[in-house]
Amino acid sequence: MVDAGVVVDDNCIEQFKAFHQKSSNVRLIVFSINEVGDKVEVAKQVEKGGDCDTWETLCTNLLGTEYAEKSCWVVYNLEMTKEDQGVERQISKLIFLHWVPSKTKLKFKMLMSSTKQTLFTKLGCSMVNIEGTHLSDISEKNILDKLKSSI
């Protein structure tokens, strides 16, 4: 993919580092390209216990409303319980969601696609990469199926 020349704002990296090191109470970070189309910025952060505390509420309360027609990337800390040889254990996985609704204009779809790897690389962390254009693409069942290979 050709680099579109969109830069990642330093604040994105700083906010992500705090999030990843668990030095903040943040559940998810939303990144988006600014209106000028030249920079990736932090668009929103949602704290744990907020209106997007589960994957289902993320889809319903954020992607199904505010971002129903807007593209973004969401880094989400998915916490779940897994049974392993009869013992339940807590697992935490970082999800990198590339969200480009089908109603997004073609030019912006291309800009998002060509900038995705730049952002992913700048964040510099191992994450499960998910892409979605419809809420059905990113249902909790689909996410858990994708995670099975990485748990």
From TrEMBL:
Molecular function per GO:
actin binding
Known PROSITE patterns for this protein? ADF_H
Highest taxon in the source lineage:
Eukaryota
Which keywords are on file for this protein? Actin-binding
Q: Which Pfam families match?
A: Cofilin_ADF (PF00241)
Instruction: Choose any GO biological process term that the UniProt entry carries and state it.
Output: actin filament depolymerization
GO cellular component assignments: actin cytoskeleton
ADF-H domain location, by residue?
Answer: 4-148
The entry assigns this protein to a family as follows: Belongs to the actin-binding proteins ADF family.
The record's annotation in PANTHER family points to: COFILIN-RELATED
Q: Protein name, please?
A: Cofilin
